[in-house]
Amino acid sequence: ILPHQQQVIIVSRECPTNQTNILPHQQQGMGETKATQREVKDELDRKLELSRPSRELLEELALAAAKDHSPEATFQYAFALSKSSEKSELRYAVTILDGLVKEGYEF
Q: Is this prediction's pTM over 0.90?
């Protein structure tokens, strides 16, 4: 084992002899680990932001659902709404989807 690596011992419960495997992993200092976690969180937040629907799209889908009165249009609106960052919109999306399920709609 090199000086910059540490040993990680994995014990397998499924193995009848309870053998161990030693895997080398690079050591990271606490500052590096925290910085890495922050980078991962920031990247996830950025990706989630990209998946949120625009106000214009939500308005278009709401109008289409109100006009068509079809389960498909309602589902599209509720699904898009479920990607919102607003708690009230998330609750409303769940209410709509719950109603569709109670009416027997299958996605």
A: no
Residue matched to tokens 């925290």? 34
- β-strands 5-11, 20-26 pairing: antiparallel
pLDDT at 31: 63
5 φ/ψ angles, rounded to the nearest 5 degrees: -120, 155
DSSP the chain: --TTEEEEEEE-SSSTT--EEEEEEE---HHHHHHHHHHHHHHHHHHHHHHSPPHHHHHHHHHHHHHH--HHHHHHHHHHHTT-S-HHHHHHHHHHHHHHHHTT---
